[in-house]
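Hi again,

Forgot to attach this to my earlier email, sorry! This is the prediction with pyridoxal-5'-phosphate bound. I've pasted everything inline since the attachment limit keeps bouncing my files.
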Amino acid sequence: MARINEHYLKLQAGYLFPEIGRRVSTFTDANPDADVIRLGIGDVTLPLAPAIVEAMREAAFAFGTPQGFRGYGPENGYDFLVKPILEHDFAARGVSLASDEIFVSDGSKQDSGNIQELFGVDCRIAVTDPVYPVYVDTNVMAGRTGPADDDGRYEGITYLPATAENGFMPDPPSSPVDVAYLCSPNNPTGAVASRENLESWVAWARKTDALLIFDAAYDAFIQDPALPHSIYEIDGAKEVAIEMRSFSKRAGFTGVRCAYTVVPKALTGATAGGERVSLNGLWSRRHATKFNSVPYVIQKAAAAVFSPEGTKQTREQVAYYMANAHALRDGLGAAGFTLYGGEHAPYIWMEAPDGLSSWDCFDKLLREAHVVCTPGSGFGAAGEGYVRISAFNDRANVDEAIARIRKAFAS
Ligand SMILES: *Cc1c(COP(=O)(O)O)cnc(C)c1O
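C-alpha cells for the complex follow:
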C-alpha cells in the first residue's frame, strides 16, 4: 500500500488563482462582450528582448553542429553565466562571492520551495503575512506545521504581519525562530526593505543563530540606488543568509525559466549534537542529486541579459512596467485611493475602499470596472482589506483600468 504524505492534506485547497479564474469565467460567460483587463496574476507581458532571442537562436543552431553540440552541463551552471552574475549582480554592488556559491536553476519558485529540505523537521519557520504562498506550503508539505485555522494560518508557523504601520516590512520576531523568509521588493505588497530594516534582520539572525532566506526576484525594479539589492550588501549577512534571484521578472523569463540561488560557504547549520555543517555543501549535494542543470540554450539566453544590449533592453522593459506602476499610483492616488508599493516594485497594494473585504472589492472591480485584481486575503490573513494590482500589462490597458476603477468608486 502506498501510504501518502498526509501533511499534504493540511494544505488549503489551491484556492486563490483557481478561485479568481472561476469568478472571471463566470463573469465573462455572462458578459461575453465585456473587455476584461487582467491586472491579477504576476506574470510579465512584454516579449523577450531581441538580444536574448538572438542568443537563444545562436545556441540552438550551435546544438545542430558537431562542434556546438553539448550534453549534460555542469550542475551548478556554465561559467559563461556564473561569471557575469558574480560581476554584475554582486561585484558591481561591492559584494564578493565565489562561483561555487552560485547555483543556477530553473526557477526561484522551485528554489524557494526546495531549500527547506536542508532543514530539520522541527525547525521553526517565520514568514511575513501576507506572503508568497510557496514558502508556507512547502513547509506544510514537509510536516513542519499543524493544521490551518479558520484564517488559513498554520499552527507552528510564526506569522509577522506586514501592515501600513510597519511600512509592510515587519521587524524580526521576538519569539524563537530558526528560519525566516524575506522577500524584497515584496510580492504582494510592493514594499521594499530599507538598509536599516535588512541590518536589523541580519543582526537578529546573527544574535539568535537563525537563518534568513532572502528572495530578491524583483531587485531589478528598485529605483533608488541607495537601497540594497542583495542581502549581502549588509555586513555579516554571508554567515546567516541564502539569497534567491530570478530572470523571470527582470528579463521576462517566466516562460523561459532561469534563476539562481546563492549559498555562501560561510553559512552553516547545526546538527542535533551541535556540530556545524556547511549549507553550501548540503545544497550542492541536493542540486547534484535532484537536478541536471538548466538547458544550455536557456543559460545562453540568461547570459545575454548581462550583455550591453541585453542590459539596456531589459532595463527598458523594467522601466516600461515601472511607468505603468507610477501611472497606477498617480491615477488612483489622485482619486483618493489609499495605495502602497509601486515605487520599487511592479505591484500596487491598494486598500479596499469603503471598508470592503478583499473579495468584495475584487467582485466590484470585476463587475463594474471589468478589471481583475488579486484579493490581498489570498496571500494571508493580514492581507484582508487589500487588493494587489499588477503593473505587468500594456500601457493602454493600464490607463483604461485606472479610468474604470475611478469610475466604479466615484460618488
Ligand atoms: C515571480 C516570483 C519568483 C520567481 O519565480 P520563478 O520560478 O523564478 O519564475 C520568486 N519569488 C517571488 C516572490 C515571485 O513573485
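The mean pLDDT is 97. The chain has two domains: 6-47+309-408, 53-306.

That should be everything now.

G.
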